[in-house]
Amino acid sequence: MNLTIEHIERIAAEVPYREVPARNNIRELPQWTIFEICKVRLACGVVGFGETLQYYTWSTVSDDAVRRAMGRNAAEMMWDDSLGAGLQIALFDAVGKALDVPCWALMGRKYRDAAHISWWDIDMPAEDWVLECEEALRQGYTSFKTKGRPWFDLYHQCEVLSKVIPPHFQMDMDFNGMLLDTAHATRVLTEIERYPNVVIYESPIAQHDVAGNKFLRSQTRVPIAHHYGSPPIMTALKEDVCDGFVIGGGVSSVLQQGTICAAAEKPFWLQLVGSGITATWSIHLAAVLSHARWPAVNCHHMYVHQLINPPITVSNGLAAVPERPGLGVDLDEEALERFRLDGIPSRPYPTPGLLLAIRWPSGATSYYAHCQQYWHDFLRGRLPVFARGVTLERIPDDGSREWRELQERAQQGGVHVGVGAGRL
Question: Once rounded to an integer, what is the mean pLDDT over residues 19-30?
Fold first, then answer.
């Protein structure tokens, strides 16, 4: 059986968001609709496929990676994380098919037959959170990861959501360090934990603040999760800064990190983002990692199509581990052709022509042209932190000179107007 890599094809595609993610992700993630599908043909005739979500961290497949892989043995190359997500997944799929075993069998001993899986959305108005959670429940999900952000009234959001979701539906609140320090974090976390659906806090303050994170663990009943690697893992374990971890990256890295978590008796969730292709890949990893006990975050439900047949289905918060060879699913060629692009487009960030308004309960308004501007201001303590009554909205272009001039000013930085508009 010849496992030599004979041909690599890369196909660009744009898969649109569903309606609710679309109107919210434009602020922060306009690029995440662009995918690159990798197809690998081996000398034995087997074809494997994988995907890269363009503009997403480590996962891009480079021309150099393709050159390095061509003519090599796929079983030798598939462990090289530097190849990028699409090519690495395609190699595992091809080798699994050639050997007539599922991808998980190439990774280790099977631990579970179904993997924990979660729904994901960025920060959005409470009404949109409700719509997304209702859809998640309809599709069999029992958990929801979202973002706790100081430009929305988090207390109001939790209050609204708690009235419509059942007690078994759990929420992970990711702050990405937006709580700044233990003084702010203790106040907010102890208030939010009153809502029993909130079961995990992720990165409430900067992860490198070892003393601060140790203190926070003593102040809340809700477990705290950190992204693996900050602070260095031995420091994190020795100082016991968190209850568990978030793990992502290439397969060699994920398996190594998952093994260390198991030795330390720390649970984690896998965070591998893309369409149904990547989500299926994540399920294979979860099958062999004993401590992948928290629901994985994959984001495939944000899109109008999963790009695979059969699509992933969830029951009681679990997705079945595939048993067919390779990934155990087929690439939906018809859908791929429908979403196909001539090449990877240059997708600018920020989205041109955005005008965003943070409305403060004092009557003041802060205008911005894109989210990195207000991320910067909040993280540096220049604006109030998690105020009650605050909200964010997009101001549509009405064609007026006033709108255009305000948007041009906002491109240079925050424009603060009205009562109490001074910055801290």
Answer: 94
Architecture of domain 5-102: 2-Layer Sandwich (3.30)
Tokens found for residue 99: 């050997």
- For the chain, the average pLDDT equals 95
DSSP string, 16-79: PBPHHHHHHHTTT-TTTTEEEEEEEEETTS-EEEEEEETTSTT-PPPHHHHHHHTTSBHHHHTT
Class of domain 114-326: alpha beta
Contact predicate 285/319, CB 8 Å = no
CA-based nearest residue to 338, from 303, 378, 369, 371: 303
- Distance (Å, whole) CA 161 – CA 156: 9
DSSP per-residue string spanning 19-31 = HHHHHHHTTT-TT
DSSP type of residue 250: -
pLDDT at 56 over 80: no
The structural domains of the chain, with segments of one domain joined by +, span 5-102, 114-326, 356-417
